Amino acid sequence: MRLPETVRDILNKLETAGFQAYAVGGCVRDSILGKEPDDWDLTTDARPEEVKALFPRTVDTGLQHGTVTVLLGGEGYEVTTYRIDGSYSDGRHPDSICFTPSLAEDLKRRDFTINAMAVSERGELVDLFGGQEDLARGCIRCVGDPYARFREDALRMLRAVRFAAQLNFEIEAETFKALTELSSNLARVSKERILAELTKLLLSNHPEKLELLYVAGLAPEMAAHFPGVHLDSRAARLPRCKALRFAAAGERITPEALGKLLTELKSDRATRDRAVLLLTAVHKPLPESETEVRRYLSDIGHDAFTELLLLKEAGYGSEETTGGVEQRTERIAKLRALRQEIAERGDCLEIRGLALGGAELLALGIPKGPALGACLRALLNAVLEEPARNEKTYLYAHAAAWLEAQKKENGGAVK
């Protein structure tokens, strides 16, 4: 296994100083699978203060857990002292930790065998629990007693499903049995941590593995509004976009329920609002004419419309199930082309793009308040029907006609 030069430099410096040092965890797993690790975590028998003394630039990122971040080559590398975790009275975090000189003791505390491997600067693999074999078998298996691992941190149950989705692995029978029997413990985990794992699951290559949450009994413990959230193989056709995949997952529930779920899980507002918007739109008929496309774009914007077409293309939306894949694909291609033409022409889609502004309408005699807003919307509506109308002469005439119509309707007053 070939380690990055900076990783080898850190390991070598620790070893030269008389310490043991290894890359550990997910980076080893991903390297064996031929994937580029997102980051490299390192472990050593050196204490945090000894690590800090060896490297000129460090950050105290988790001294209470023995972690120091070494800054080298423009990157940060977490270096954690071998440790043994104490009891987990809250089912989330160890009550205490103690350092150990034993790599084996450190690896023994980890969640799954595939995450409990280490590799030295020379590429020597330390695999005490059969992680490499489990990778070859496509198996998610706990290190040691799965009941103990899941009681220590209930989030590990959700992590098992997430890894199954990311790697397209199966969960080993005893691990899955423990997971189902302890599923109620997930209720003790914070919603933020649940959302983080759920998001990784949804953005994986096999988001349909979300259904394991129901098989295992985890779904009712995720959040009050989670039951009803489902995914099938269509979701994998969508780009890895949070809002898109959450909208797909909410296909069987209402937009309001999806919004409540994402609020309960403490999702960021932008993701929540976009997912709700997409779920609302996906159950409506697609526009047919160029004018209807402009109205759609005016309502939800270019980006959301593009994402809506991706959902429709993947087969979401009830009316899109008829006519066959070929007809649906052809129709969506035409809508994409129309959207592109509208964007390239720069058609006015918003009030702020009108050639006539609020100040000019006030000068025409339209009062501030609801009447001004209503007039601007009427002008935009006319321009959405025919973009060439977006010039001052036409809009003045249209606004004047609108004003006269309002006076007639309201006995000379404009409301």
Query: Beta fraction of the residues?
Result: 5-15%
CATH class of the domain at 1-130: Alpha Beta
Low-pLDDT ranges: none
User: What's the story with the biggest beta sheet?
Assistant: 7 strands, mixed
- The Rg value, from CA coordinates, equals 29 Å
CATH architecture call of the domain at 1-130: 2-Layer Sandwich
Number of helices: 19
Q: Major sheet: order of its strands?
A: 3-4-5-2-1-8-9
pLDDT averaged residue by residue: 93
Name of the CATH superfamily of the domain at 1-130 = Beta Polymerase, domain 2
Shape: elongated
Q: End-to-end distance, in Å?
A: 75 Å
**Under CATH, the topology of the domain at 1-130 is which?**
Beta Polymerase, domain 2
Helicity range: 40-55%
Number of strands: 11
Order of helices and strands: HEHEHEEEEEHEEHEHHEHHHHHHHHHHHH
Oligomer: single chain
Estimated structural class: alpha+beta
SSE inventory with pairings:
Blueprint (H helix, E strand, L loop, with lengths): L4 H12 L4 E4 L1 H7 L8 E4 L3 H7 L3 E5 L4 E6 L2 E7 L1 E3 L11 E3 L3 H6 L8 E3 L5 E3 L3 H7 L1 E2 L5 H7 L2 H13 L2 E2 L1 H9 L9 H12 L9 H4 L3 H4 L19 H8 L5 H10 L4 H14 L7 H24 L10 H22 L12 H6 L6 H16 L6 H18 L6
Parallel strand pairs: 2-5, 10-11
Antiparallel strand pairs: 1-2, 1-8, 3-4, 4-5, 6-7, 8-9
Describe it for me?
- With 415 residues, the chain is α+β, with helices and mostly antiparallel strands.
- Among the domains are: 1-130, Beta Polymerase, domain 2, CATH 3.30.460.10; 281-345, no CATH class; 351-409.
- 50% of the residues lie in helices and 10% in strands.
- The chain has 19 helices and eleven strands.
- Strands 3-4-5-2-1-8-9 form a seven-stranded mixed sheet. It has a two-stranded antiparallel sheet with strand order 6-7. Strands 10-11 form a two-stranded parallel sheet.
- Strand 4 and strand 5 (75-81) form a beta hairpin.
- Helix 12 crosses helix 14, helix 13 (255-264) runs antiparallel to helix 14 (269-282) and helix 15 (290-313) packs across helix 16 (324-345).
- It is elongated and about 90 Å long.
